Amino acid sequence: MKKKYLLPVILTALVLVGTYVAYLAFHFYLFDDYKKLLVNYSYEEGTEFVALQDSAHYVQGMDLVAENDTLMLYANLETTEVAVYDKRNGQITYSNPVDRESDEIATGVNKNLLGSQIVVDYFDSGLTLASMNNYEKSILKNQFTIERIENGIRFTYLLGDLENELGIVPPVISQERLTTLVLDHVTEKQARTVKASYQDMKDKEGFLELAKGTRASKVGMKKLKAIFEEAGYTQEDCDEDAAAASGQEVKEKVTFTIPLEYRLIDDKLEVNIPTEKVKETGNAQIAAMKVLSYFGAGASDEEGYMFVPNGSGSLINFNNGKKTEQYNAYVYGMDIVSQSLVSVENTEKIRLPIYGIKKENNAIFARITSGESVASITADVSGKLNSYNYVYPTFVIRGSDVASMFGATGAGADMPIAEKNFYKLNLTIQYAFLDTDEASYSGMANYFRNELLIEGTLTKLEESSSIPLYVDVVGGVQQQADVLGIPYYASYPLTTFDEAGEIVDALNDENISNIKMNYLGWFNRGYYHDVPDKIKVISKLGGKKDLESLSQKLEEQGGALFGDVAFQRVSFSSKRFNYKMESSRYYAGSIVTGGRKNPVTMSQVSSVGGYMETLNDALSPKFLVRYVDKFSDKIDKIDITGISLRDMADDLHADRKRTEIINREESKYIVQSSIAQLEETGKEIMVNGGDFYSLAYVDDIVNMPLTNNEFYIVDEEIPFYQMVVHGCINYTGTALNLDGNLQSTEALAKLIEAGASPRYTLSYKDSSKIKYSGLASLYSTQYEEWMEDLSSTYSTINEVLAKVSNSFMIEHEIIEGVRKITYDNGIVIYVNLTNEDARVDNVLVSANGYAMKGGAE
Q1: At 550, phi and psi to the nearest 5?
Q2: Nearest to residue 639, comparing CAs of 560, 572, 756?
Q3: How far apart are CA 541 and CA 522, in angstroms?
Q4: 332 burial class (0-12, 13-18, 19+ CB within 10 angstroms)?
Q5: Considering Cα of 230, then 232, then 234, then 239, what sign does the dihedral take?
Q6: Secondary structure tally for the chain: helices H, strands E
Q7: What is the DSSP letter of 541?
Q8: Measuring CA to CA, which residue among 714, 737, 243 is closest to residue 470?
Q9: Integer-rounded Cα radius of gyration of the chain
């Protein structure tokens, strides 16, 4: 009887197990919809290089490679240096300093670096990081080829030491092979020289070894090498003899084959390394490549500066004497998958993949158009390693990690590991050459903005009679409660939708109607919400109808309602997230998690509250598309103005699972396509931070960097990011009421300089109600307490900026501490950031104040 029932039970169990395995396979392991969003890179086959006819000879010692209406590209076919001649002003920009041989500071490897175009950082067989430059290991050895490509040239470098210390002369060789491969192919005199150079090996019969006296003689070795070459003896023969003598296979030599392409495209020089064609041998693994470190470098006798996208933007003056520090920062910040290896300070990120060099009569503006997400930007001044001022990118094309190893005795150690394959992508930089009247950081910003307008990334805003007021409203907050002593999390309504409407009414009473409201904690249990594959509007806040009524109210008055959502950082309190399957992983295998975050600025905070919901897992880019698909379907049925993306456009991370690595550049395309999909729902898009790849889809940016990081090497802070997007995208910085440093007249002056709208984080009830929750850092948000300050601040800033709401910021100047900002509608704003009154252009500007001329003042 038992057997009768046992078989169906077993079969049922097998079906259930099979069903679950199939679910895991198709839902997680085999899910690859993200691959449709990745970019396929093309490769142009080269042809034999023939220089163009050059009657002008603008660049002596170089051959003409390509020419268009604006530029001429030259190349030195022996040193592989290139130069660009600008027909508009006769300026010549070189890839390497032309007077580097006279540099009295650079010696040894630093002298060689001045002649290089590529520096390779690589892991050797022991996973120790080493370095190799193409000048020393390719150009001097004549180990490169040249090809013509459309409108340009390709150099393919072979970096490495192909010969051993003795060249092709074998230190040990058998008598038989010496006779058949060498002695039988040379003259009797040459044969006698060869025989006299070798002696019998004492411990290996039939083999000869090179005599010590011959080894020590440079003249003798040179003669011997010539004889072996004349006999037709090759490096391969030498390696074979070495293997026969040792009884072991000769280790493959460490080499790197790297193509470097130059093309003229309109008024730009495009430089590209297609990593798909990069090769590595000898058990060496490329980690990173520095590209054109000294392109357009400024000499120590030149005046000028370097522009770096440090937060809002920074200038580093040539020869500023600050030799103890160089500027170095990752584009879009450091990948959190790499942060396990380093300590990261809370700093403003690089949001734009650009940099530049300003000289006396011209300027160079560089834009990384591909591979920027794996790049960092470095800038340094003369007087330390060499006599030049320079800025360049480094591309990390292979990730590394540390695996913790534990022995039987309990002792542990960290072992470095590197990813098996380097990333297959294009590393592309475009250099634009700005004419004399555009040769400034303002000219760079104007050039970049114009490019983005032509590309369709930016679109000019319609004229508005007022600037936006950005208001974060704190709605549902998870708090721990209990029933009969059993703890559970419940949503506490710090601000209901109706109460948010009362805040809107209060703002209207202060004559503020252009309100951009970002509602925090409106669905899926609150701010630290469950994954957004479903949308359940919190009933305690009023439900879906009240949410839509709030949106309608704001829109009728000229404002907008945005629903805040986090896709990539999944709270530990999420119930529907399979963290083991869906989280990004370090290459060593562990899951990537994030620490406690400030919910408004998303910056790391030090206090420990013990609230699990503040911790988060990093969603793998692989599964981002699934959640965005589901959210898009659901949000389409909710009638609110827009979506506020808490982490997309601010957080860009890889997934280094061993079987299916998604590198950061691939992640960029996945995130970018996901933002585009959300825009296609018809909702307006607000983003936090504003990484460059999001700009084509964005209506508003919050937490835009309005300042820079105060690196010692930096000389001036400038609002470069704002100069590019003002008049195209509305933006704001951090919440004024949550940053004590911003409560000052100086802070208002900074907002006016940056053309930024004010922002506040508010709630209807007192924030003390959520003191024991994951949002305890919101210490002062009750709206009535801030209404007077908010009204005054908005009125002050709106009075100025409303007059330039859709105008381009075409020039920014620093005149003795006063910032002069000129807009394309003729209005000029003066901002004095000093503690004394100042007069500029016969305009009196009070200390930490502002003044304006032009337009209807």
Answers
A1: -65, -45
A2: 560
A3: 7
A4: buried
A5: negative
A6: 17, 47
A7: G
A8: 737
A9: 32
Record the pTM.
0.91
For residue 264, the SS3 value is: strand
Return the pLDDT at 593. Answer: 80
Q: Domain 97-158+259-452: which topology?
A: Beta-galactosidase; Chain A, domain 5 (2.70.98)
- State the average pLDDT over residues 107-112: 95
- Is residue 84's pLDDT more than 80? yes
Residue matched to tokens 């490096």: 235
Cα–Cα distances in angstroms (integers) from residue 213 to residues 216, 242, 402, in the given order: 5, 20, 48
DSSP code of residue 600: T
Average of per-residue pLDDT across 542-551: 97
Which string of b and e fits 688-705 if b means at least 16 CB within 10 Å? bbbbbbbbbbbbbbbbbb
Strands 469-474 and 759-762: parallel
Contact (CB, 8 A) for 84 and 92? yes
**795/793 Cα distance (integer angstroms):** 5
SS3 string, 190-244, reads: HHHHHHHHEEECCCCCCEEEECHHHHHCHHHHHHHHHHHHHCCCCHHHHHHHHHH
The whole-angstrom separation of Cα 171 and Cα 15 is: 69
Confidence of residue 365 (pLDDT cuts 50, 70, 90): very high
Residue 409's pLDDT band (cuts 50, 70, 90): very low
Q: Are 603 and 709 in contact (CB under 8 A)?
A: no
| Cβ-based neighbours of 675, under 8 Å, separated by 6 or more | 645, 648, 649, 685, 687, 694, 697, 698
Q: Is the pLDDT of residue 341 over 60?
A: no
**pLDDT surpassing 90 at residue 214:** no
pLDDT tens digits, one per residue of 183-195? 999 999 999 999 9
Q: What angle do CA 328, 334, 337 make, to 5 degrees?
A: 145
Which pLDDT band, with edges at 50, 70 and 90, does 3 fall under?
A: low
Establish whether domains 97-158+259-452 and 469-805 are of one fold.
no
- The candidate with the shortest Cα–Cα distance to 280, out of 422, 144, 375, is 422
What is the enclosing helix (H) or strand (E) of 453?
helix 441-455
DSSP E strands: which ranges in 466-551?
469-474, 476-483, 486-493, 515-520
Q: Percent of the chain, pLDDT > 90?
A: 75
What residue type is assigned to position 620 of the chain? S
Q: What is the mean pLDDT of the chain?
A: 91
- Residues 6 or more apart whose CB falls under 8 angstroms from that of 662 comprise 34, 620, 621, 622, 654, 655, 670
Tell me which residue has tokens 């100069």: 723
Which burial class, exposed, middle or buried, applies to 147 when counting CB atoms under 10 A from its CB (0-12, 13-18, 19+)?
middle
The residue ranges of every structural domain in the chain are 97-158+259-452, 172-246, 469-805
CA atoms within a 13 Å half-sphere pointing along the CA-CB vector of 472? 33
* Host H or E run for residue 14: helix 2-24
Q: What angle do CA 605, 606, 608 make, to 5 degrees?
A: 105
In whole angstroms, give the CA distance from residue 160 to residue 737: 58
Strands 515-520 and 469-474, bridge-based pairing:
parallel
For residue 374 the two structure tokens come to 């794996």
Side-chain half-sphere CA neighbours of 278 within 13 A: 28
Q: 């990745």: which residue's tokens? A: 38
| Residues facing residue 549 across a β-bridge | none
Task: Look at the domain 469-805 and name its fold.
Answer: TIM Barrel (3.20.20)
Distance CA 133, CA 115 (A): 9
Task: Give CA–CA dist 763/782, Å, rounded.
Answer: 5
